[in-house]
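User: quick one - fold this with IPE bound?
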Amino acid sequence: MVKKPAIPRHVGLIMDGNGRWAKKRHKPRNFGHSAGMDAMIKLAAHAKELGVKYFTVYALSTENLKNRPKDELDGLFDLLRKYFSKNIKELYANGAAVKVIGDISPLPEDVKTLLSDGEKNSPKDAEFTLTFAINYGARSEIVRAAERLVAKRLDGVEITEQSFSESLDTAGLPDPDLIIRTGGEIRLSNFLLWQAAYAELYFSPVLFPDFGCDELDKALAEFSMRNRRFGGV
Ligand code: IPE
Ligand code: IPE
Ligand code: MG
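Assistant: Sure. Structure tokens for the protein plus IPE:
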């Protein structure tokens, strides 16, 4: 009997390599980000079809917001505007929800409104959640969670691993089972540090715009071969 490969419930994706992909084509970096957005949309649909329930994509780190040139950031905001006003409709039509993690307070007002409307208008009983990490950094998230916990403590909530998890931006999401990073770098770059405690890590040299559904299949095939022990024998 063929054993059905285990499908991760929650996949995290560090979408890296857009800039290098564009550079190879003598195009501006934002050309790469736009191609990356197209790739992400296809991957999310494919993941949903395969039975993944939560798909979390790293779209902009706290460090990116601090350190990238203004025109690149403007291009990224434009892509978010487009996604959250147009593409999101198809996601809803397929019964999927969006969620945003990260500190969106410094973003342009219209982008903030689109992001929070996108969350608010999501179907309630969604079978798939696409989470965008935007101005997200795990350290910032952990500090903000600590602040929330201090407030909750006044209401008698104890500080435990569970109450801490529930104070993170990812409250309500299970921990990621698999984190994929494209673009060749072997690091997490401040992505889901708390939640990744027992995630399987998969690093691909493929630049993100070239990371197609076949590459996701490869990552999932490798995941299904991993032996997850969670500290047991
Ligand atoms: C990742 O691609 C997307 C964002 C950080 C927004 P990069 O922009 O980091 O692409 P490279 O790493 O320079 O190729
Ligand atoms: C990580 O990529 C952030 C995102 C993919 C959004 P970076 O390109 O910013 O990471 P570093 O600088 O190579 O670590
Ligand atoms: Mg990069």
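One thing worth noting: The two ends are 26 Å apart (CA to CA).
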